[in-house]
From TrEMBL:
Lineage of origin: Bacteria, Pseudomonadati, Bacteroidota, Chitinophagia, Chitinophagales
Protein name per Swiss-Prot or TrEMBL: Phage tail protein
Amino acid sequence: MESKLYPPVGFHFDVTFGFRSKVANDMYFQSVSGLNYSLQTDTLKEGGENRFEHVIPVRNKCSDLVLRRGIFKSGDTQITEWCLQAFNNFEFSPVDIVINLLNEQHKPLMTWNVHHAWPKSWKVADLNADKGEILIETFELNYNYFTFK
């Protein structure tokens, strides 16, 4: 039985891109960050009032969405191909992304719908013979906004 007294854990989630992938594991990520809103502000100086300035909200701004996972072999990942299409050919195909926080029965507890995402950066971790770590790739995506339910 699901308890409503405790906050949910943040390690059980799934990510779905707005396109189908050839490989099921293509959508598995180690971490997701950047689901942030902030308000940009403007300062208004009032004539004759020297004690303070008025700070007014102007617009919302979202952070970059950052997705991390173990790297896939070239040709086995639709997401990397989507990014490389943007970087190599400057052909951007923005997609919507759904991020679900899951409960113990693998059903969504919370859902973030990220709108109009496009690749801004793709990074591969350092190759290092001294460490026996999984090679991680990081995707940084720009997006317009997200909705939360």
